[in-house]
Amino acid sequence: MFRPLEVYIGLRYTRAKRRNHFISFISLSSMLGIALGVTALITVLSVMNGFERELRERILGMASHATISGTGGTLSGWGGLIDRARAHPDVVGIAPYVQAEAMLNRGGAVRGALIRGVMPELEPEVSEIDRFMLEGSMNSLRPGEFNVLLGIGLANALGARVGTKVTLIAPQATVTPAGVLPRLRRFTVSGIFRVDHGQFDSALAVTHLDDAAKLFQLGDRISGLRIKLDNLFDAPRISKEIARSFGGRYWVRDWTQENANFFRALRTEKTVMFVILTLIVAVAAFNIVSALVMVVTDKQADIAILRTLGASPASIMVIFIVQGTIIGLVGTLLGMLGGIMLASNVETVVPAIESVFGMKFLPPDIYYISEVPSDMRWPDVGLISGVAFVMSIVATIYPAWRGSRTQPAEALRYE
After folding, report:
1. Which of 377, 386, 375 is nearest to 278 (CA)?
2. Do residues 240 and 190 lie in contact, with contact meaning Cβ atoms separated by under 8 Å?
């Protein structure tokens, strides 16, 4: 039966100065190992959350939360669709777009590109392209002037700068008396943007909706509507509701479908890192086994005396479980405190380390994200701390059971 006496003795054993200092060293190393493992786990998962957040914001800053397109790939009479989509309470922005693949040429450089036609007055509702502009602005896109904004990678590949002329080669052909000729159009580069994501920086070119529709011979049709939602994580549910409101006549896709493999890979990597770093905590937690086994051996006489005074085997187990639990609890709390402090200050700590060693951990010319971000989430902190604490308790069971099996006569024979 559990009584406060067992807790008192267990706490006393934890605080007492043992004759064997090696046991104290093992207990301390177990405590510090748990603290270090928990700190590392909280920090690493927070950094991975930060990278995931940055990538999601960069991708969705240029992509859309959801899109509406026709079953044939184009939409006509889309003005009424905008009004109907805006009627949904979770839709905060909507804008039309034209999108097609083409070739861009300047001098001897030729690059494939994804051409996106937008309406500059509506585009800020669904994207943050203005935030990524290095030169120029969205306002430079005016109908009939055939201006274009290029990603930094695409501009560098073509050797283009603001004011440079580039030739756009559309896949649609024009039939002339001389034969079938590709459609060509000269565009002027009026801006350069940098998203720090290869999908956009190296392949995306943005022009006015009317110019793109004229180039690709769409007339008054568009490729679809881009939608921004109040909560991007509700995109699957909201996109289904919008599709149902249209009677299933249009194709509605959300960002989780278009980028499913990418974000699934990030989640898998995060799970693998959690498992690997949990092994550090497990090693430290199971050092408690060694410490408590030596404590049980050291306290054989004490156990025997307690047994002769009427203590049950269960009481002896509780004493050593309490002692091991204290080690695990203190280690977990120290690790949780250290992890929270480090994860909350990664953006400060990492630049300080870089300045001391004179190096850059993530060079901007190699990595898309050159700063180490952090996004500490309390559910992760709770899960990590809970796992570490449970491991500590599990590690106490065998030594405590072994102590409870001590026979008083055998233990006191040589005392």
Report:
1. 386
2. no
